[in-house]
């Protein structure tokens, strides 16, 4: 039997938000106010589309973007954790479900040689046009009122598990590692034997605490982490059982 590890990307695997980090490529490393103020809640992907057009209009090329993105630091202890998972792939299936995009995640994982640790990456599709502009699309359509319109992580997780079951693969336990508000929906889908690992001091931890105070706690166990070393300690216990 295997364990399934589900990772968010921004502020979880890397210690920053990849979408805001790209602004370092902009003239004077900032966006014009009009562009910054154009974001509407739930429509982040469309906003990033405008950011990429602005960067393209200002002559920012793919090479420069790649160089900038691969300087993002990994979260404390994360490189050791991913190395450990890589050495134990017979025990762990590992996926990323993220509101970043395929280009950024691919660059960052390949530069650090971690792309083979992950079996699948579910994120917004992105590519460079023939004119050198980066364009990003919504990951999917869904009917979940709790999630941004481009991505419901619960739907992604459920579809992945269904597909694995069709292949004859079921998991002893799901371990969900994340930090953001959009990680709550999949965490609420987890069962009693599963475990949610919210990052200490971030939105997901606060939302899970709030649910417990409202006497509607999540079904799964909750273990807070501040360094990826905490996650690795838990996984080592898991495979000893």
From TrEMBL:
Record bears the keyword Cell membrane: no
Residue numbers binding Mg(2+): 8, 10, 179
Record keyword Metal-binding present: yes
Coiled coil: none
GO molecular function: metal ion binding; phosphatase activity
Alphabetically ordered keywords of this record: Hydrolase, Magnesium, Metal-binding
Species this protein is from: Neodrepanis coruscans
Membership in a protein family: Belongs to the HAD-like hydrolase superfamily. PHOSPHO family.
Residues that coordinate or bind substrate: 19, 99
Protein name as annotated: PHOP2 phosphatase
Catalytic residues (UniProt): 8, 10
Gene: Phospho2
Pfam families: Put_Phosphatase
Domain of life (superkingdom): Eukaryota
SUPFAM superfamilies the UniProt entry points to: HAD-like
Cofactor: Mg(2+)
